[in-house]
Structure formats: C-alpha cells, structure tokens
From TrEMBL, chain A:
<feature type="transmembrane region" description="Helical">
    <location>
        <begin position="90"/>
        <end position="112"/>
    </location>
</feature>
<keyword id="KW-0812">Transmembrane</keyword>
<protein>
    <submittedName>
        <fullName>Uncharacterized protein</fullName>
    </submittedName>
</protein>
<feature type="transmembrane region" description="Helical">
    <location>
        <begin position="234"/>
        <end position="254"/>
    </location>
</feature>
<feature type="transmembrane region" description="Helical">
    <location>
        <begin position="28"/>
        <end position="48"/>
    </location>
</feature>
<keyword id="KW-1133">Transmembrane helix</keyword>
<feature type="transmembrane region" description="Helical">
    <location>
        <begin position="152"/>
        <end position="169"/>
    </location>
</feature>
From TrEMBL, chain B:
<dbReference type="GO" id="GO:0016491">
    <property type="term" value="F:oxidoreductase activity"/>
</dbReference>
<dbReference type="InterPro" id="IPR025192">
    <property type="entry name" value="Succ_DH/fum_Rdtase_N"/>
</dbReference>
<feature type="region of interest" description="Disordered">
    <location>
        <begin position="305"/>
        <end position="328"/>
    </location>
</feature>
<dbReference type="GO" id="GO:0022904">
    <property type="term" value="P:respiratory electron transport chain"/>
</dbReference>
<dbReference type="GO" id="GO:0051537">
    <property type="term" value="F:2 iron, 2 sulfur cluster binding"/>
</dbReference>
<protein>
    <submittedName>
        <fullName>Succinate dehydrogenase / fumarate reductase iron-sulfur subunit</fullName>
    </submittedName>
</protein>
<dbReference type="InterPro" id="IPR012675">
    <property type="entry name" value="Beta-grasp_dom_sf"/>
</dbReference>
UniProtKB/TrEMBL annotation, chain C:
<dbReference type="GO" id="GO:0033765">
    <property type="term" value="F:steroid dehydrogenase activity, acting on the CH-CH group of donors"/>
</dbReference>
<feature type="binding site">
    <location>
        <position position="250"/>
    </location>
    <ligand>
        <name>substrate</name>
    </ligand>
</feature>
<dbReference type="InterPro" id="IPR037099">
    <property type="entry name" value="Fum_R/Succ_DH_flav-like_C_sf"/>
</dbReference>
<feature type="binding site">
    <location>
        <begin position="16"/>
        <end position="21"/>
    </location>
    <ligand>
        <name>FAD</name>
    </ligand>
</feature>
<dbReference type="InterPro" id="IPR027477">
    <property type="entry name" value="Succ_DH/fumarate_Rdtase_cat_sf"/>
</dbReference>
<dbReference type="InterPro" id="IPR003953">
    <property type="entry name" value="FAD-dep_OxRdtase_2_FAD-bd"/>
</dbReference>
<feature type="binding site">
    <location>
        <position position="266"/>
    </location>
    <ligand>
        <name>substrate</name>
    </ligand>
</feature>
Amino acid sequence: MTTTATRPGGGGKARAAIAARTLRTDRWWLAPLVTFIGLGAWVTYATVRVFMHKWFFVDEYHYLTPFYSPCITDACGDAAMFGTPLPKFFLLPEAAFTLPFLLLFRLTCYYYRKAYYRAFWLSPPACAVPDGHKSYSGETRFPLIFQNAHRYAFYAAVIISVINTWDAVHAQTTGLGLGNVILWVNVIMLWAYTLSCHSCRHIAGGRLKHFSKHPVRYRFWTFVSKLNTRHMQLAWITLGTLALTDFYIMGLAADWFTDLRIIN
Amino acid sequence: MKRHFRVWRGDASGGDLRDFDVEVNEGEVVLDIIHRLQATEAPDLACRWNCKAGKCGSCSMEINGKPRLGCMTRMSTFEENETVTITPIRTFPIIRDLVTDVSFNYEKARQTPAFAPPHGVAPGEYRMQQVDVERSQEFRKCIECFLCQNTCHVIRDHDENKPAFSGPRFFIRAAELDMHPLDALPDRKEYAQASQGLGFCNITKCCTEVCPEHIKITDNAIIPMKERVVDRRYDPLVWLGRKILRRDQLSDDNMAPSTSPGVAGTSGGVPSSRARLPEGAPVGADGHMDIAELVAPLQGGLSPFGEDITFPLPPEEVTYNHPDPGRK
Amino acid sequence: MSTRIERHLYDVVVIGAGGAGLRAAIEARLAGKRTAIISKSLFGKAHTVMAEGGAAAAMGNVNSKDNWMVHFRDTMRGGKFLNNFRMAELHAKEAPERIWELETYGALFDRTKDGKISQRNFGGHEYPRLAHVGDRTGLELIRTLQQKIVSLQQEDFAETGSYDSRIRVFQETTVTELLLDGDRVAGAFGYYRESGEFLLFEAPAVVLATGGVGRSYKVTSNSWEYTGDGHALALRAGATLINMEFLQFHPTGMVWPPSVKGILVTESVRGDGGVLRNSEGKRFMFDYVPDVFRKQYAETEEEADRWYTDPDNNRRPPELLPRDEVARAINSEVKAGRGSPAGGVYLDVSTRMPAEQIIRRLPSMHHQFKELADVDITKEPMEVGPTCHYVMGGIEVDPDSGAALGTVQGLFAAGEVSGGMHGSNRLGGNSLSDLLVFGKRAGEHASAYVDSLGSRPKPSKVDVAAAAEVALGPLVREGGENPYTLQQDLQAVMGDLVGIIRREGELSDALKKLQELRVRVANVSASGGRRYNPGWHLAIDLRNMLVVSECTAKAALEREESRGGHTREDFPKMSPEWRRVNLVCSLEESGEVHLERKPVPRMRNELFDLFERSELAKYLTEEELAELEAV
C-alpha cells in the first residue's frame, strides 16, 4: 500500500534524533523494582527452607508443608505417604519429584515471564524504556524456546495440586486448627492459580474455532477466562500463601508457638 | 493560563526539543495544544490527525515518554506546573516533527494472508453465532494507531528484528482470522510462528498497556496464538501425526483470483488494462526487479519527458544557444 | 524550488480512500483496470471510521416484513421527496447484496440468534434495518474494504510479483486539480504531503469520493480532510453541484468540553433508550413532532417507553424523529433559554438502563465520554447539541452510473461528494450503504467508460504547469495572510450566517463576506518548506472550501422554503412548488459561481403507488396530484 519505500528521494530512514533514552517522568522503575525485591526475597526464603531438611512436618496434626510434599526421601519419617524411594542427601529436596515441575510451571508461566523479563532481565524494564541488551532474539531459540513447554508443566501442576489437596484432607483427620485453615486457603489459592493458567484456558476451550458447537467447553472457557484476568494477582497471592503456610508449619514443628485449635 | 511545553522539531537530518509556552483552557487535550501552536507560533509544525475522537488512530505520539494518542490525553492529567514533552513515535523513521514513516506496518499488513472466504457459501448465506465471532470482533476494534508496534521493544530497541517480526498489530490480525468461524485457510499458526516472528515476543505486555482501544492484545491474541502454535509445533503427538499424514503444507487456495460479474460482460480478474505499469522500476527486498517487469507492456520506468516525446528531437524544436566566448 | 513532476499512468484514478473510494477501486480492479487510490491521510483513516450506527439494508433479518420498498419509502420520506428517486430505488434494492458481499471480504457484523446479520433500529427507519458491529460499524466497513484491497494486492503479487501492479494506494497525497483534454478527463495533478513533490496521474477516468464539506463550519464532526475538494475539483472541471443548501446538522454532537466540541454521539444512544431533556428536566421532543410524522410517533412517554420492548404494537418515541427535526428542536430549546450551561441539552441513558447494559450496548460511546470528557454516561447525562455532520448536496450525477453531469466526460462520483440520493435530509445508516452501492456502481461504470474510449485523452503541458504554479503560490507569496486565520474567518461566516436557521439578510451578508474572503484567500501565504507543511496544505485547500461555501450560501438564499437540512426562518413552511426544483451550481469561465433551477425528475408511477395518497398530498402540488389521479 504504502509507496514510500520505493519512491526515489523519499528521505532518509533515520529515526528522530531524541537525545534522552526515555522521556518518561513517572516512576516507571518502581514496578520492576518491587517485582525484583519480591521475587528475590521469596526465592531466597524458599531455597533456604527446601535445604533445611527439618521442621517440615507436624506429626500431631499431620501438617505437611507444601515445600516438602510429597515427601519421598529417607529423611521423611511419618511425613512420607508415597514411600521413600530416594535416599537422604543434603542436595536432594524431600519433594524431589515435584519441586522441579513446580519450578518449571512458575518459570514458564506467562505472567512470571513478563515479571522476570522486565525486573531481572531488563528486556525491557518498562514500556518505552530501552532494553538493557544489545541484541535480542526473544523466545525463538534455545533455551527460551522451551518456554513453549508451559502446557506440560501445567499438567504436572494439576497433579501436584491434587497431592496438596490430599495433604489438606489428610491433616483434617486430626480435627480442626488454624493450621488446617491455612492449608485449605493455600490449596484453594493454588487451584485458582493453576486453573487460571493461560494454557489451561487454551485447553479448556480457547483452541476451539466454534464455541457454539461445544457449549460445555465454552462455559468452562468462560470460567477460566474470568479467573485468567486475575492470573497476576493469583501468582502473587500463592507466593504469599505458600510462604505463610510453610512458615506456620515450621514454627509449629520448631515449637516456636503452638497451633490454635478449634476442634480437638 | 499558559503552560510550558517541549515539542520535538526536526527531520531525518536531526532535530531537538523546542520550548513553547501555550495557553491551555479547561477540558483540552494535547492535540488542541498542537493545533494552537500551528495556528500561532508554528504554522508548519507537522502532525497527523483526523477524527480527534480516538477513532482513527492518526495522532500517535509520545507524551512525557509514553506512547499515546494526542486526542485522548487530557491536559487535566498533568500537574499545572508540569512541563509536557511531546515527541514523535520512536520506532519508525522520522519524516518531520511529529510525523513518522509508518510504512513498515503497511508492508507487514500486505504480508499477512487475507481472509479466505469459505467455498460454496454464497454471500448472504453466511451463518455465524455471536459467541463465535466475539473473540475476532475484539481484535477488529483495532484503530491501527500503531502504538503497540511503537512500544514493542522487539523492534523499538532492536531495529534489526524488523524484517522478521510483524508486531502485535499483526498478531491480533492473525489471531482474528484464526478464530474467524468461517475462514477457509486451514492454518495460520504456522505462518504466525514462521513468518511473523511470534517467537520473538516475550509477552512483556507493553502492547496491551498502550492500546487506546483496550484490546487485551497479549492475553487474548498473542498467548492464545502461542498456545495454538504449541498445538501444532511442540505437541509431540500432533507433530508426529502431521509428519505421517503430510499435512504441514500451507494451502494456497486463498490466492485464487477473485471473480466479479462486472458490467457489460467485462470479466473479472482479467487484466485488460491499457495503462503501463505505474511503478518506476520497483526492486524487492533482495534488490532484484520483480517479475512483473517482463509482462509489463513497457519495460523500465516512465520517461521523465513524458510519453509523447521520441528521441532524437527534431533540431528545430530544440532551444539551444551556442555559447559565444567572444561575447561579454 | 524544483518542479520535478512524477508521472503515473492508470486506467482509473479514485480520489478519496473512504468507503466509497475503496469500494469503487475494488470494482475497477475486479474489472481488470489499473487503479490508483489517492488518500489525503494514511490508508484506513478516512472519515468513514466515524460512522457508528450501522449500514441500512432491507435484509429483513430481524423483522421479516422489511423489504426494499419499505426502505425506499423511508428514504424518500426522510429526504422530503426531493431525493433522486432512481438513486433511492437502486440504493434500497442493492444495499443488502453489498452488505452480504462485505462478509465475503471478512467483515464480522453482530449476529442474530439464528446466525444472520443482526439489525438495529434507527431514526426514520420503519423496521430494525441497520447492520452493525457494536457502535463502530464505520471502522468495520473501512477495515474490511482496506483488507479486501490488500487481498487483491496479494493476488496480484502471486501473479506478477508486485503488490502494486494493478492497484496502488497513494497515501498522504492530495489532488489539487483535474486535467482535461477537451471535455474529457485526462488526469489529475497533486502532491505528496510528505515530501511536497508533485505528481501527475494520467488517467481517462476519475472517480471522486472525497466526502463532504464540514470543515467550513465551526462546530463539526468532520475531520480536517473534509474541505470539499471533490466538489471544487468537479466544479472546476465543468461538472455541476446540486442542492448544496442541504446540510445535515447531527442533532447530538458533544458540546462539552470545548476540545471535543462537535464530536458525534451516535443516534443509537437514542435508539437504545436514551432520551433528550432540557434544563428543566422535561422530555421536550413530544412538543416537536411535525404533522407529517404525527401518525408514526408516540404521544405519551408511556407509549414511547413501551416501544423499546414491543415495537409492533406501539409507536416510536419522538427522540427517533429524523435528524433535522431533532436538531431543530434542540436549537429551539436552547434559544428559548432551556439549554445546558455549555449551550446544549441533556441526553440521558443513565436513568434508563443498568450500567452493564449501557456498557455492552454502547461500548465506544462509554469509552469516548470516559476518555475524552471524563464523563461516565452510566452515571450522568451527556451534554449535546447540533453539529455539522453531512452534506446532502453534491456533484450532480447520473443515477445509474455515477457519471458527473455537466460538460465533462469521464468523471464519476460516489458517496457523500455526490448529490441527489438523500434529497433534503439523509436518514441515519443510509450513508454507509450509499457508499457501497454507489461506490461499486461508480467503479464499474468508470471501468466500462475506459473500455469504450477510442483513444486515451492526454493532459496538456500548459495545464500541468499552471496547476503547479497555483499549488506553489502560497509558498512563493510573501507577507500574505495566515491560512489558519482565514479558515477561522470562513468558519465563522458559515457557522453564524449559513448555519442551521437561515435568514435572507444574513445569507446576503454571508455572500458579501465570502467575496471579501475570496480576495484574501487569493493572497494567502504559508511559511516553511514543502516537506509535510500543514500550513501550506491548508492554504491550498482554502480555495476549495471557499468555492463550495459560495455554492451553499447562494443556494440557501435562493431556496425560499424550509425543508430537511435547510431551514429559513423567513420561509418556515415546506412548499410543494419548491419540491419540484433542484438548485444546480456551476462555475463560469470567470470563476464566478452560477446558480440555476432544474426540475426534479418525476418518479415512476409504480413507485408513487408505494405511498398513500394522503401522504403524497403533504409533499406534492395540486397539479402533480391531479396528474397522478388521472393515471
């Protein structure tokens, strides 16, 4: 349509010579900074906790922290519900089967990708602020092309959410305390986050061309779409509930405080 | 009340921010200020605009560093003593002042395969359900202001990606057609990945942030397209199936010539033109002339002297005075 | 300054890239003609995007009683019987096909339950008739046509290796003059806005689709492009304009805040339940139903409110009267001191339906008020008033082919720039279908005309040189007036003296002032160079605005009656005698505007039969009625 490309004497192809790298006057650096601090703090906490190898289980009430679920090494003791096929080793997390998939699920999540590409990789730090890198190939090659595997991490995350639900149910057999409530809140939020996933939205119905021919999947898609608009909030909420659940159980296991019991 | 503005003025050879103090009245938008400048201090200040109602997408500019429509940025959103800086959009070559050469977008538009009407469905017989067209309708709200294209760091900060990357505007176009209930082209996903550079997108969502129509570009178009690509490309079972059934070639029947009864038996689609090829001698991206040169009634560009002149000219029609070195 | 002129050869040159222009270009290309599209702004930005309501076509999807005859009747009624009947007939008959065709280009209209194109109610239309997409139908239409052109270019690319080989868009290019070879069109002369370089198109057929003239008015919904270029080009080429006195003032334009003054509030706000109130809170439209419409409109608020849910058994609310009636009513309320602070009246949907429903049915209106005016229409009423919106008059054309009448050959016109179709007042939704129907016809017949030619006309070098000199004039002249000041003065003259309500004294005053302006415009100068210089561009356009304004003022002075878009305070009645008269403008050798009366073509008898005699009696003279009785 346009003809400027082939027209002789159509002028140079230079961009406007604007000296400032960005002319934004608002505090555009605030959001990436908060993300950087938030994610950094959480990862540090989680790493420390995963390699502590203790204070993860409250025997009396069957509280198991999600960071150690399912517990499958020889260090588990009574927390093991699916056997202990792995030996005890300080580099091996107790939830060795699930943690890598959970990590993968969050790492390839469409929201977290935005968050860490902006806050950690500065590509770009904020809109209309220059990229921190000279060259850029996006997610077209190794290793970032594996971001496309998000869907498989989602399948794994569903299974893990089932296990977490089982943990909550199992803990329920001993009565009801504040720990149970925290476990349930965590599990519900985890489900909400998992189901609000963009891949889930696609699988639920997004891939269809004709919604009108699949009314049930359309309703499911509508439901997931509603959740999906809150994917970012849920991503942060679950980071919070995970850390809180873990911390509460750590405190109980270490006898820093006792569980507030409602029944029994 | 007068307020302080800085407006970038210049062209491809260079330019800088100029200071202006302009009267601002209640209820005005940035484009009003540009117009006041044109009517008073700077009559030749170049700026695109049309509808002044956020419907045509012409007045894209960067206001205090943010890509925005001039007509949709109310002056009341700034502090009274704040300096407002207005610059052209950065990603595209400058023409003059606030006007840039956005031809990149029109070139990319031409490369996106068009809607392919379903075979054997007569006009008037199209039946679609509202729930099926709604997703595509969202993308058709696009007013082509190209702010998303401008803000996308893939080309904003890396000019070298321009050939391989179509940008958010054309991802939503691909998504629109892929979700169109009656589009007959079997596969646009492969195209989006291979030719539009969908993989370059790292979903940092700036396109969605700047969209004046509030189209959820990332959540509703780019991510679903990425997922659809995963269906085809990265799903091991589907991949195997396609290899075995050889269903990975793009069909080309969307390029079937269109037909029209025309008037008085003038058949459709048949070039019966008497005019020469209009272009000079267009060269493609590879620097070669395209094949149309050979079938054109006349090769090469038009004569700058007009068609009706043949050389050599008869001597009596040439005005020529032989220099006489002896005369002063 | 260089006067290098780039030359191009085409079969059909389409000036204007709005709906009509694009549709004409598609048709010319489908007929195998090399086609150029010339657009003053970027491709796809034309004013058509502003049309919100929809495209009227009697498809009968929502109410099966609808058919072309009803649509024809509504159109004639709306235009107060001054319409060119043949155009109205073709329009009503062909509109559905044109809409369906758009779907094959990829358009996605809103759907009915059974999957057909949904249709909505609109002022002046008896049945729900407007195919629509939310309230951004114009955008859908232009985008669809734009994408169809791209798809044609892709076909050409597949065949020839060049996208531009058969259809090429010259965007940001302005045509300043048409070139003739004797009486035949030989080409067009213009410039690239971007570089200021000149171009010459050699083409035996030119289709004008340049839209309207709204920029000559202070309060207008039109964009800067609407400077009457096509009207002026046609006049100078020897064509004629008809009925230029009929301008439609859209009743509901935004009046607050000042920056958005004139921007439209779509009629569907009223179609979907919005009501007009004055500062006393009164729903005043019930007082303004004219006798000719008495039968079709509700008399009480209760009946009007029932209509929204049960249109078959109730009469429609008076808010849905044709646009001119509503505009005049608002004007009278404001003049009587019952207006809003900003000089308009209140249009209220907030008390009529729940917020979600407003957002769903009027998404872009909600968006527009929120973003532009910081007004939440779900919570408070809008302030609206009349704004110059559409010109019913235009180039006088042959109804079937769109060929311009007058002395010129090879000139075609379609869309707003052509006249006759809408009579004295256009119904909402009829313009989008008008674009498609007559755009197609103009493209088709321009192609046929090219085929019928023996030899190609050639533009003369003298004319080209003269056109270049005129275009460079404002840059060469020193010390002349600022074009922006001149435009403001012109807008003031037209807005104040040739506005909605007109008087003889004011009109002759306006003509005098226009004469003065003409001298000043001839002396306009622009600073800066040729590269993208808006001051220079405006200086060139001023000449067009001026000559068209003169036609409007002259015709308005001549027509001594009130009808549709022309209201004379001194002649408030509609006169059956004047219904038989078209006012035709042409340009004399000296550059003076010449006005003459021509009879309106007589409608065929079978079309008269579509109307009740009692209705015809309101419009026709005794003599005409007697003649009808005799048949």
